[in-house]
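Summary of Year 1 activities. Much of the first year was spent building the evaluation harness for sequence design. The harness presents a backbone, in tokenized form, and records the residue chosen at every position. We chose the following record to illustrate the format because it has been used consistently in internal testing since the harness was completed.
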């Protein structure tokens, strides 16, 4: 808005409308933490986008676990979640070391529970996945077993290894898939307690 002298009531009303329009166009989401305007601050599909992360963080309660990267997050209660997917929108296949290494980021953590489910259920046989530390399964016998024709969440709370230290590397294997329909989009969440 250009600087001008306000003589009549109409001049004042016009100036107020211009100021109101500028304020309307400068929304809170357009301002970063240093009170600078962010250019091109329209909603982004990029999970790493600062504006998206800030809007999510501002809109969620303090004790809620956040997962911005699709990989890991920490809650206010001291739990660390590691979520990953395999066969996303495609058929599951068997193999070893099928995902990037899962690196433990905290000095001392305890594995509390594993949750797993598929989007498309296996048929003909169960789908079985495994998580390994130094080539040895951390799961106690049954591994991650998705029943035939089931898309329900499977919970596992018994492990051969429960305590982990920073820098340890976990790997993911798919040992078995459905023989008729292999199954699709296996999502696994590992819940750790930070010691």
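For this record, the design step produced the sequence shown next.
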């Amino acid at each position: 808005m250009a600087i001008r002298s306000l003589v009549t009531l109409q001049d004042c009303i016009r100036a107020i409308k211009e100021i109101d329009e500028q304020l309307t166009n400068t929304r809170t989401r357009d301002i970063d933490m240093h009170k600078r305007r962010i250019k091109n601050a329209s909603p982004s599909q990029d999970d790493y986008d600062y504006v998206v992360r800030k809007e999510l963080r501002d809109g969620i309660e303090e004790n809620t676990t956040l997962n911005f990267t699709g990989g890991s997050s920490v809650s206010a209660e001291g739990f660390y979640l590691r979520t990953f997917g395999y066969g996303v929108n495609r058929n599951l296949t068997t193999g070893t070391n099928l995902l990037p290494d899962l690196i433990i980021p905290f000095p001392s953590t305890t594995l509390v529970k594993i949750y797993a489910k598929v989007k498309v259920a296996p048929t003909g046989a169960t789908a079985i996945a495994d998580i390994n530390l130094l080539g040895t399964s951390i799961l106690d016998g049954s591994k991650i077993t998705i029943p035939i024709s089931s898309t329900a969440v499977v919970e596992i709370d018994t492990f051969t290894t429960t305590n982990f230290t920073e820098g340890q590397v976990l790997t993911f294997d798919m040992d078995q898939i459905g023989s008729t329909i292999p199954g699709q989009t296996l999502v696994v969440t590992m819940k750790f307690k930070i010691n």
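Confidence is low (pLDDT under 50) at residues 40-70. Quantitative recovery figures across the full test set are reported in Table 2.
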